[in-house]
Amino acid sequence: ARHNSYRGKKMAAVQDAPMELDAEKETKPEILSDGTSNLSGNTASGTLSSPPLTAGGAPKQEDQQTLIAVLQFLRRNKLTESVEILRREACLEDQEDSQTLDGSGGGKGDGDGGDANSLLSRVSIASAAAPQSTLTPIPVKSEYDQPDVSVVLSAYSQQGDPSLYQVYYSSLKNFIESVLDCHRAELSQLFYPLFVHMYLELVYNNHENKAKAFFEKFSGDQECYYQDDLRILCGLTKKEHLKGNEALLDFRTSRFVLRISRDSYQLLKRHLQERHNNQIWNIIQEHLYIDIFDGMPRSKSQIDSMSGSFAGETRREVNKAKVFYGLLKEPEIEVPLDDEDDEAENEEGKPKKKKTKKDSMGSKSKKQDPNAPQQNRIPLPELKDSDKLDKIMYMKESTKRIRLGPENLPSICFYSFLNAYQGLTAVDFTDDSSLLAGGFADSTVRVWSATPKKLRKVKSAAELNLIDKESDDVLERIMDEKTASESKNLYGHSGPVYGVSFSPDRNYLLSSSEDGTVRLWSLQTFTCLVGYKGHNYPVWDTHFSPFGYYFVSGGHDRVARLWATDHYQPLRIFAGHLADVTCTRFHPNSNYVVTGSTDRTIRLWDVLNGNCVRFFTGHKGPIHSLAFSPNGKFLASGSTDGRVLLWDIGHGLMIGELKGHTDTIYALKFSRDGEILASGSMDNTVRLWDSMKAFDDMETDDFTAATGHIHLPDNSQELLLGMYHSKSTPVTHLHFTRRNLLLAAGAYNSQ
Amino acid sequence: SSSQSGMTEREERRFAEVPRESIKLMAESSGVELSEEVAALLAEDVCYRLREATQNSSQFMRHAKRRKLSVEDLNRALRWSNTETICGYGAQDALPFRPLKEGELFFVEDREINLVELALATNIPKGCAETMVRVHVSYLDGKGNLEPQGTVPTAVQSLSEDLLKYYQQITRAILGEDPHLMKVALLDLQSNSKIAALLPYFVYVISGVKSVSHDLDQLNRLLHMVKSLVQNPYLYLGSYVRSLVSSVMYCILEPLAASINPLNDHWTLRDYAALLLSHIFWTHGDLVSGLYHQILLSLQKVLSDPVRPLCSHYGAVVGLHALGWKAVERVLYPHLPAYWANLQAVLDDYSVSNAQVKADGHKVYGAILVAVERLLKMKALSLTLAAEGSGAGLPGTTTGAVSFRENSPGLSPPPEPLSEPPLGIASHLQAGGAGCPWEEWTPVSLPAMYCELYSFFGDSLAVRFSTGLPLGGVPPPGPCQPLEGRKEPASSAPNLENTRKMPQLTASMNISPRQDGSPRMEPQPPSLAATVPGRSLARSSSSSVSRSRSSSSRPGRSTSQSRDIFPKARFPLPQAGPPAFSFIIGGRQMGRRCQGRRFQTSFSPTPPLTTHPPRAYAHKLPVIGRVSKPVRRWTCSHYSLHLPL
């Protein structure tokens, strides 16, 4: 299917609706929710991917007028089909609206997802917060006509006299440069979106030379972190180019968000009205969303720390939704007394005696974390006996864990991939550090044993018939000793493997590839079990839920998908990013998924309802690594700009910036207790950061929490505990063993 | 498969462009005729699409965690936008992009490959090694060296298997027992072009000289290794040359454990090391020029340290000798009076217990003699050259210069002086670094130098000098004799003049060399240079300002004067004018010291008295205490860093 249309078109069929929805939800909530329903052709999908529809923004009246204008334009251009679509949406508006508002819940998945439903039905949810009774697999939307691109573009043809844009822009520039310092920084935020919109409009209206002149004159004024965007714009000089360029269509369809204090906003408004500068005002009205707040205007550094994304800043209310970031209660598992290691330790330290009954971890988590979600908010797989054994192992190991801190840094072991001429693209360790998987650009996945224990396959069916199933060591007997080897190759993909992830029980391995599929491999037979198709475009990353069963993937089609291993179709589609989803991670409590994107934003999604509950901006480059702190409260993100940003999930705030790396950060990991954050980068270094200090230093007063205006202390140097060089080996992956030994992995680069 | 492209000259562009001409050409080649506008539009669109594809392909590169965009990345981007991919560019090596002279045509070179040959080729490439994972503890407890490089042994392990083997074989062969194997290894080390990566390890091995100072043989082998490395034209020694030099210096200067046994011929080792040092400076002057002063200083320090054994002193002397006659002139020569006292004491001790030390002393004596001999010869030669140069360049500038030219008629500049001072060093020496003790160094005129040296060595110097190879400036004995006769009066005249000026000289002692030159005036270009300290000897003739006065006062005579100094000093002097000579010395060395020197001149006829060869007698200076004191003052004024004896 992939070759019949240009990428943007097909993707739009799946994505544009939610995206549009996301972009314009402020002003046209009703229409948008309709759009979703229409496009998907399934009224049940209302909750799947739509972010919360908050009220506010421009009054409804304006929307109506816009609609009428658009309809007129369409008719004039004989775009009857589009007219019809738009009309239908407008007409259906009220009925659909009501349906959306009263909760798109109850038993809607019985159509397409009915069969899948049964698989999950054993677990029921009795949560007041979620109307659904089950996690319903929702089918991917069918192909449907997308709104014509020109509709979107047409908006550009109506705004003032393009030949005067230089004048408009200059006058605004002069005004902003003349206002008081405290307002200037805030109003300067207008430059970039206005510049881009005006430039695009000039291009759209075939004023090629004027556009070039406009670009020449004002591109130098833009913030340096927009350089990449400007480079794309610079090459775009024809209307035809615009049509094919999704990035800029996105820019058009989304409204660039600015956060400006009320004072500054009034100042701007007064100025524009006095000067009758309607063109600027129209563009602001049309393409920008100005999130006004009361209080002190922000400083330049405050603004800079939050800006840089493709679609402006976060609206504050977007991050107001409640997030249950606490950890789930650990299941109570009896720890057997018989361990001789424990005995030895107990001789030395007598007070430890008590723990033999129940593990300290288990008893601690008996008290329900107030921030934790309901235990069964998301149906989770039941623990098998082997899982319980593993938990016991984990607890034993964690008693031997080294307490890390600024004075006690972890030892680092480096796993070097040698002779990886084909290109190492992804690495993962199992939680117990016993296995190591590498994804390669030659489409292979290789699994190594990181312990002396060799990898063995299960015997063939014929041989299995011969063994004594009643014997005690049946698990040993089923393994084929002849196949023992240090590593196993997994063949199946037809493109570079960009992401690998082990299941927590070490029975499965996931790999995502350029060929558009995610594959599930058995680590018992070392064969491929399932190929999950759905992305249709390169899948950049995949990650297993910490409880197994679910996994998330994200790719070039700008969506992240939630899957269950026993479903061949995704359960959720998380749409909203304006560009590729480059990395995906599960929250430790498995209720949330975080995604990082090329649009330089991070989104946190609720697995239950598919809503985007957190939206973080501040990175100045594509995000390539994400890591949750073990307590689930914090998130670290690393990007191509070499910076690590720290986020408080509960408050929805940026709380730290770690500068130091000189190249893309591909690996981030918190130590097991969360005291140390390790970051690994293309610059061949591993750096250790004092994450405890970073979290403690954050401002936690109510005002900050309410407004989101943070003052980032420039304390990267204090927080940097250590920098460790590898020998021309980019750090691709980092992992803390259960005892807090840091493992790093990367391919030795001989050039 | 050749493609054309070129930068448009219309305006400056941020991107490479495909000009419309190329588009038209491509269309023509596929049989389509394009109008100008269509071609222009197409060209622009093609450029945009190319940029777009590049933009998209960068994403594949980023996710492959690479820094280098590959053809494969671009092909993926093309494939995903439903464009035909390009084939045939999968090679890892960069493709040569060549211009064609006629017409601005650029193309990728696409050679034809003979498949038959390829198929039947016997050198089948080995397959890539299996991808594997190796783990090592990089940093224990967060501590580790912050240097990316580990210690040498661990670093060796990371070398390629072949290199490692080579390294082991070579070191084993060189340090092993088999002389033939050693020769082969050294020869290979000298010519192998692929061992750059091993250089640090070889240097490390060589730096092990300190641990084998008891084993002359090993030291010798290591020095040979240095020689091979230095001579290898493919190696860039870079900063490792310092380490090599320090190892060589160790062999030259240190009182090696091996030298305790008198049977060990450590002298040869030192000679060889000095030769090597000179070789390094000669061939890698650019790398070591910064070291020159450092080395001179350390040599001087050793020389002036009476506690050091004589073998170290010997090393210092041969080291200086190896660094060139200018080094000898600057360091050894000024230091000689002070050193002489000590050496004298050693040589005068005839006790049995001193026999060994005395033998060592004779070694040093010989080395000094050789060094000063060359100093004198080279200096004479340089003067001649200078004279010739100036004569040719500026005819008639100074009479003195002309006279020198006459002195060596028809003699072309011999090759030796040119090769003697390596360029970098020579200039360094002349210029003298800021604040370095040589800054204040003032050249001593050749005759004065000869006289002083003669006072130490007596006839042994004279004999060597006259019997040595005929140097440029020194006429053969035949023609020189007649000159002698002529010059006799001439030489006495300045001497008389000199004595007349004595009171002045004593008044300002510490600049004695200069004073020494001025009274004698015109004849000596080198002495004139004294007025311009640090000026190149070769160019000193051009500093005619100071000279002009004197030369004008005595035109014509300068010629003879300059000529006769040498011959006189060479042979006739001892018998012809001991009084005259004593005058010269007196004038040079001040009244108080002239006593001692005069002794020397009177000693010169007495060589047959002892069993030693003639040159060994000259050093029998009875009054040593007197010499040392003024010398120290003199020394102090010139060498602030110098530790007086």
Keywords:
heterodimer; A: 751 residues; alpha+beta; Serine Threonine Protein Phosphatase 5, Tetratricopeptide repeat; Methylamine Dehydrogenase, Chain H; 4-stranded antiparallel β-sheet; 25 helices; 31 strands; 24% strand; disordered N terminus; B: 645 residues; mainly alpha; two-stranded antiparallel ribbon; 61% helix; disordered C terminus; nucleus (chain A); WD40/YVTN_repeat-like_dom_sf (chain A); WD repeat (chain A)
Largest sheet of chain B: 2 strands, antiparallel
End-to-end Cα distance of chain B:
82 Å
Strand order of the largest sheet of chain A: 4-5-6-9
Which regions of chain A have little confidence, pLDDT < 50, spanning 5+ residues?
A: 1-59, 94-134, 136-148, 340-365
The largest contact between protein chains, plus residue counts on each side, is:
A-B, 69 and 43 residues
Overall 3D shape of chain B: elongated
| pLDDT < 50 runs, ≥5 residues of chain B | 1-13, 145-157, 391-439, 467-645
Query: What can be said about the biggest beta sheet of chain A?
Result: 4 strands, antiparallel
The Cα radius of gyration of chain A reads 27 Å
Radius of gyration of chain B: 36 Å
Strand content of chain B: under 5%
Strand content of chain A: 15-25%
Mean pLDDT of chain A: 78
Structural class of chain B: mainly alpha
Q: Helix segment count of chain A?
A: 25
CATH architecture of the domain at 412-465 and 475-696 and 719-747 in chain A: 7 Propeller
Number of strands of chain B: 3
How far apart, in Å, are the first and last alpha carbons of chain A?
Answer: 40 Å
- The strands making up the biggest β-sheet of chain B line up spatially as 1-2
**What is the number of beta strands of chain A?**
31
Number of alpha- plus pi-helical segments of chain B = 30
